[in-house]
Every structure is written in C-alpha cells, then in structure tokens.
Write a structure and sequence with these properties.
The structure is a homodimer of 142-residue chains. By secondary structure, chain A is an alpha+beta fold. The first copy, chain A, contains 7 helices and 5 strands; from the N terminus they run ααααββααβββα. The radius of gyration of chain A is 18 Å and the shape is globular. Chains A and B meet through helix 1, helix 2, helix 6, strand 3 and strand 4 of A and helix 1, helix 2, helix 6, strand 3 and strand 4 of B. Chain A binds a DNA duplex (30 and 30 nucleotides) through helix 3 and helix 4.
Chain lengths: 142, 142
DNA sequence: CCTAGTGAGTTTGGTTTTCGAACGCAAGGT
DNA sequence: ACCTTGCGTTCGAAAACCAAACTCACTAGG
C-alpha cells in the first residue's frame, strides 16, 4: 500500500485521475478543471506516465500535440476513486453542490458501488474483515 | 471528491489511517510504523480529529496520555484503503514482500473485496459505470 | 505580411511545507 | 539520582509549491 501511495498519494494526482475518468485527455483541460498549477501538473503527468498509469500519445504533429489516456493499470484505480467519491458524498457533502451520480449500465440504476466479498458475495464492511499475515502479528505484538 | 481529498489526500494521512485499521492507537506507534516525521504526525492527527475521522481519547491522567481511534466516519473509509491495498498488490508488488491478506469473517475465505452494484449485485468495473449529472455535461461540452 | 490565438509545456522568484534532529516535560522504574 | 517512556514542540535547512510570465511551433484572420 505504501507503494500504491507513492504513485497516487497526492492531492493533485488524484484530481487528475478523477478528470481522466471523465475523459479529460489534454493538458489545458486538466489544468482548467483541476486548477493545478501548470508546473505541478506537468510534473504529475510525467510521473503518472512513468508509473504506467497514463499513456502519453501524440495526436498531432505539426504542431506536436499530446494527450494522456488511462492505461489498464490506470483504469483499475477506479475502485479507489469511487470509494473516495462515495465517502465524500456521504460525509462531506454540503447542500449547495449536487453530487455526481453514477449509473450502472448493466441494470440502468443510479447507484454507489460498494465492496462485496468475491468468495460469498456478501457486502463487506471493515468489521467483517480481519488481516492475516505479517501485519496481523505486528499489530498484535503490542 | 475534492472535499474528501482535502481530508485524506495526503500520503501520511492515508498511512496513518492504514495503521489505525490495524488497531494502532498511540502516537509512538503511529510514528514508528508509518515513519512520518513527528511534527507532521502531530499535525495530521490533529487535523484528522478536527475532521471527525479520529477521536482523541484520554487513557491515563498522571501523566496525561491520549490515544486515537477511528470514528464511524473513519471506519467508513475502509473501502478506500482496501481498494488502494488491492491495487498496490496487483500492480506494485515486488516479490520479496508478502502482501497483507484479508479474511472475510462471514465465509472464512481469504479474499480481496471488490466493487459490486447494490442495485443488481453484479461486479462492477469502470467500463460498466457512467457518470450522470453536472460533471457528465461538463465532460461532454468539449 | 502582421497580428492574435492555441496547445503544451518551461522558467522565474518568492512563499509554504516538509524534514530530521534535538529539546521539553511529566511521570515511572531501578 | 538517573534512565526510560509517551507525547508532543521548536529549530534551521532543504524541498515543494505557487502564480505569473515566457517559449516554441504552429494556424487563422485581415
């Protein structure tokens, strides 16, 4: 998890990724929609590309122009973003800003996806899970 | 989501919360396990308490000693942490560090929880969902 | 031809944050 | 009397951040 955070553990990075999921692809648009300072944005995009989360693709020569798209690795961050969105809507909403809503193409309903157990299909909360392995013993060793 | 990130959009904050889910409660232990610099840790704990994610509780007077526990709001961040954990294991693992594994108390199996649709129960990926509402039009307005 | 505009950055210079190391303080142990 | 534990705070140096201006390579309009 620390390694995951070394990639996405940054305010601007996550805002950039949110926009990427909304199909923003160009530097100017990322800049306008996230409000990130341009040098910071340039640096973040570069490191996301280095980390394989975004792909930098030329969409024009003369003049050279590039766009940034999510890779498979990037798309797989969706649960992180959705979980944050959900938590923000639940705990941090203020009334004069309507939340983003998500529609499930499969069933057509407006929903907030939640965690479930792939083993038994039940919904999962923190209390239903326990850590095992190296950290479990660490935490217990107190 | 931006508001959510204003609370947890920080490398150290998320590491602190990870430890909190492992039942770390004391300043020294947070410091040792996250490696966060002490002044940063003090400031982060304070702001997490301000934001209602952690609760600061006195567990001894003479000398005064405090511990930090997750509130309900904090516990509800579990999906964010689990999603990060899962992504890190999938995309950032290196072989000489065993991943943390999670057991579902309900069915006893070792699993990585995933997102599902509360409407129809199907598993959900980024491609199955579409945004509607204010941002959808914004993204389309290009 | 001259000027304006667009897209994708880079440079600059000044302000915040962050960091590691050391310190403070109140007790408890030996 | 001295060392240790727990929980922080203070300090100066180093790094990151920011807004604004600049660059470069074109395209479009008059």
């Amino acid at each position: 998890m620390a390694r995951a955070l070394s990639v996405v553990g940054d305010r601007w990075t996550l805002l950039v990724l949110r926009e990427a999921f909304f199909r923003t692809r160009r530097f100017e648009d990322f800049q306008a929609r996230t409000g990130a300072p341009r040098p910071v944005l340039a640096e973040r995009l570069r490191s996301l590309v280095d980390d394989g989360v975004l792909e930098r693709r030329q969409y024009s020569d003369r003049p050279d122009r590039f766009e940034y798209r999510l890779t498979e690795k990037g798309v797989d961050l969706y649960p992180v973003l959705v979980s944050l969105l959900r938590w923000g809507d639940r705990w941090m909403s203020d009334d004069d800003e309507l939340p983003i809503t998500l529609r499930h193409r499969g069933c057509g309903q407006i929903v907030q996806p939640e965690l479930a157990c792939p083993g038994c299909g039940e919904w999962v909360t923190a209390r239903d899970m326990e850590a095992v392995g190296p950290r479990a013993t660490l935490a217990g060793a107190r």
